[in-house]
Amino acid sequence: MKTIAPLPLDVKLMNALASALFMLLLLVLLGAGLAYVQRLPQFAIRGVTVMGDVSHYNAISLRANVMPRLQGTFFTLDLHAARQVFETMPWVRQAVVKRDFPNRLKVHLQEHQAVAFWGVEGDSRLVNSFGEVFEANLGELEREDLPRLSGPNGQSAQVLAMLQVLQPRLAPMELTLAQLELTPRGGWRAQLDNNTTLELGSGSTDELLARLDRFLKTVTQATSRYSRTVEQLASVDLRHSDGYAMRLSGVSTVEAQDMKNVNQGNR
Question: 3-class secondary structure for the chain?
Fold first, then answer.
């Protein structure tokens, strides 16, 4: 029986090196082939499928505005960068971008739902249903009678929340908030759609509601004493501890004592 002599060490090293070089060459060729395939024009992004509750955009408008800004093919496109491009569109709040083989994208869009204007009169910024401020073409608004909110930077969500608390209190009297402002000192000022100004003052939500409810329960009786209606109120100051001050067309008075009499008469 013949014994096979082991290969010399230098031969083993040469064989191992040759195998490693062969594998390296194979990987390089494979990588080059994949890179070539990834860049073939057949895989260039050619279309977008739009999903979601979208009213301001469609596949045609997105293709015209977004496609020229996308970099890469189906394989090389950076989805995170693509999402950011879609979210730069004025009405887009959030975008989810996925590949759709071989050369398309599927995009699920969430649009801003405008519920109010933001800032001083003439400011074109809007507030969405999440209390976030955004900018868009006002000519594309579905409603033009939105309320106007204002306040310090970063407080839009708080102002919207207060609007949503106050408006249901006013609705039974067919009054609507047209403007609501949070002042830099933390006070609240409102204007109704009949141009009546309400000084609500500062404090917790419960304190503001208590003052507003006190006013709403007695304002009809208070205005009728002067042969006026609620619609003829010019301004109301609810910051008084024992009543409120109101200004009517041609009449100015403080209703603290009158309100006490009304309350006593209702007992």
Answer: CCCCCCCCHHHHHHHHHHHHHHHHHHHHHHHHHHHHHHCCHHHECCEEEEECCCCCCCHHHHHHHCHHHCCCECCCCCHHHHHHHHHCCCCEEEEEEEEECCCEEEEEEEECCEEEEECCCCCCEEEECCCCEEECCHHHCCCCCCCEEECCCCCHHHHHHHHHHHHHHHHHHCCCEEEEEECCCCCEEEEECCCCEEEEECCCHHHHHHHHHHHHHHHHHHHHCCCCCHHHEEEEECCCCCCCEEEECCEEEECHHHHHHHHHHHC
Contact present, 235 and 199 (Cβ < 8 Å): yes
- Rounded CA-CA distance 165/77 in Å is 46
Check residue 97 and give its pLDDT.
96
Q: Which tens digit of pLDDT belongs to each residue from 172-181?
A: 999 999 999 9
What domains can you pick out in the chain, each with its CATH number?
A: 42-111 (3.10.20.310), 114-266 (3.40.50.11690)
Within a 13 Å sphere around the CA of 35, how many CA atoms are in the beta-carbon half? Answer: 6
pLDDT for res 259: 45
